[in-house]
Amino acid sequence: MLVDTPSVLIKQKGQHVSLNGQIEYVVARVMGEVASPTKINWLNSSFLIGMPIVSVIGVVLHWLYFGPPGWTEGIIFVGMYYACGLSITAGYHRLFAHRSHTAAWPLVFLYAFFGAGAFQNSIIEWSSDHRNHHKFVDTHKDPYSAPRGFFYSHMGWIMIEEDLFQNDFTNVKDLEKSAIIQWQHRNIFIIGGVSGWILPALIGFLIGGLPTAVGGLVYGGLVRTVFVHHGTFLINSAAHIWGTQPYSDENTSKDSFWLAFFTFGEGYHNFHHQFQADYRNGIRWYQFDPTKWWIKTLSLIGITSNLKKTPDHSIVVSKLDMKYKRSARLLELKDVDTASFEQRVSLCREAMRNALFEMAKARKELKENIDSSKDTINDNINELKTSIISIRVDINDLFSDMNNAKFALA
Prior knowledge:
There is one protein chain. This protein is mainly alpha-helical. It has 2 domains: 2-305, no CATH class; 312-408. The chain has helices at residues 19-30, 42-66, 71-97, 105-116, 123-135, 150-159, 179-186, 188-208, 210-236, 257-260, 269-274, 290-300, 312-333, 339-368, 374-408, and strands at residues 2-3, 38-40, 102-103, 160-161, 304-305. Strands 1-2-4 form a 3-stranded antiparallel beta sheet. A two-stranded antiparallel sheet has the order 3-5. α3 (71-97) crosses α4 (105-116), α3 (71-97) crosses α5 (123-135) and α3 (71-97) runs parallel beside α9 (210-236). The longest helix has 35 residues, at 374-408.
């Protein structure tokens, strides 16, 4: 059955999407580059719509026949929630799609096993879509493009089929070399059924017999599937609508601390789109990112390795450029010449980049060198710290002057 599914291109209340992305999509639609009409994927649609309904029915029936859920059901739910959720965020996303680190084969197997139980397709399929998302973000070639509306980017894209998004998997050749990943791809539905539904039911049965087995299936299987689905789906939808853009406004990605609590730390999405190879999303110790903590903890016992981190100078310069860009826009709206400010920020940018680069190099040398040379390196580090403080003062003065220029014409 074919149905015409027009895209949602009008800015909705509270929704901010990239103007360039909207224009690009409209042009592509007019030029006939966007697949239309679209075909409903009845399997995916039935699953996504039916799962919440079945979950509610399961909760009601379990409550009526066996009473309210107890600690056992709660523990099974939390255990399966983290096992399947982290298999998506740490496994499918940061390990497989972005290669932000490497992992020992037993962990790859666990990600493949429990990731299938999240019912978000195979590693190969998921990673191919996600790499295309980053490559073509906010354009008509983005599989879950935010300019097409919240519902489309949240789950609508899964419920329809468009010729443009038929994967040939040419962008995941590296993943196809793994026997574990290939095995999962071939048997995704069987593995998903075993890990996502049979396993929590079996755990419940071994602990408390039939009543707890049903509870394990309902809460650790059905309800947990819905929670993991919509938690991770929020990254494609809400994380491209609400939040801040401290690193870049070239696409619709946003940083949102509250969204991180629902997505295993994936809420710092603007950082991720700017520095997608980084194994972290929340780069500060206090930013809620259990996926980052999981990967880092496993590296301490050798299960993960080669953790990629964006250099400090790249992060700081990116934030500086974004802050300057916003301030310059406000001045340009008031017809203020920003040429002198551009020269100053250019000098600050280069000085800060060089100082932080040298600082990182000096600290690395401090770890590797013998004791006799540490005093010299420490002196160099202290000089660099003083230099960085001075540069920060210059940056603050720059933005103070820009702010004064803005209000001078008010």
